[in-house]
Write a structure and sequence with these properties.
With 218 residues, this protein is mainly β. It has 2 domains: 91 residues, Sandwich (Immunoglobulin-like), CATH 2.60.40; 85 residues, Sandwich (Immunoglobulin-like). The protein is built from 2 helices and 16 strands. A 5-stranded mixed beta sheet has the order 2-9-11-14-13, with no helix packed on it. A 4-stranded antiparallel beta sheet has the order 5-4-7-8, with no helix packed on it. Strand 7 and strand 8 form a beta hairpin. The longest helix is centred in the last third of the chain and has 28 residues.
């Protein structure tokens, strides 16, 4: 009888309903059909599914790239022809691919002041490894590194305030993550001068009113 064949022979996509089929094109042995036949699919010694008297068996599952990629699938056919037991089997390594997942984005600052150094890093998993791009409030004085995973601003300005969005993709899909980075305002040294000016003006006005009241005739 024919040697079993496992389908698909290419990749399966993580997180999607997939099907493995083991098929035998012919169950005949020297022109005769067996009195009994059993075809099974198994993994690590555990039977996934089996069929009796049929030339094929199917198994539906949702693969996980971290758990199933590289797993060995065994298809075994056992035929009984009179008192003779015939066996054939075939192995196939499961190839699982995945669109980007487990996306994370981190920043050294959620709130920043003028001239602060800001670093925003994006990470994701996927098979094949994903590529990264960014949507930024401004690309002025922005550096990209670590295979485009990291954005660095050595001296942040007010126009760097806003949403930093990381875009991740590979041939099987895309994903994204974002973080808001808020400009707090100028440093205290820039604020002190206007405050002192306002206090001085206030004192002058109060002094003027007091002087006017004293000079006013009764």
């Amino acid at each position: 009888f024919s040697t079993p064949v496992i389908y698909p022979v290419s990749e399966v996509l993580s997180g999607h309903l997939e099907k493995i089929v083991c098929n035998i094109s012919s169950l005949k042995v020297k022109g005769s059909l067996p009195t009994h036949s059993n075809i099974s699919l198994s993994r690590d010694g555990n039977i996934l599914n089996s069929s009796h008297g049929k030339p094929s068996v199917e198994y539906y599952f949702v693969p996980n790239v971290e758990q199933d990629d590289g797993a060995e699938i065994l298809c075994e056919a056992i035929l009984l022809l009179g008192s003779q037991v015939l066996r054939k089997n075939v192995n196939q390594t499961l190839k699982v691919v995945a669109s980007p997942y487990n996306v994370s984005i981190l920043a050294t600052h959620g709130i920043y002041k003028v001239d602060a150094k800001i670093m925003v890093t994006c990470n994701a998993k996927g098979k094949p490894n994903p590529e990264y791009s960014w949507e930024l409030p401004s690309k002025v004085n922005v550096e990209f590194s670590n295979s485009n995973k990291t954005v660095t601003i050595k001296s942040a300005k007010e126009f760097h305030n806003g949403t930093y969005r990381c875009l991740i993709h590979n041939v099987y899909g895309k994903n994204s993550a974002q973080i808001d980075i808020v400009f707090e305002g100028k440093s205290r040294n820039w604020v002190i001068a206007p405050v002192i000016t306002m206090l001085v003006l206030g004192l002058i006005i109060i002094g003027g009113v007091f002087y006017f009241c004293r000079k006013r005739p009764l």
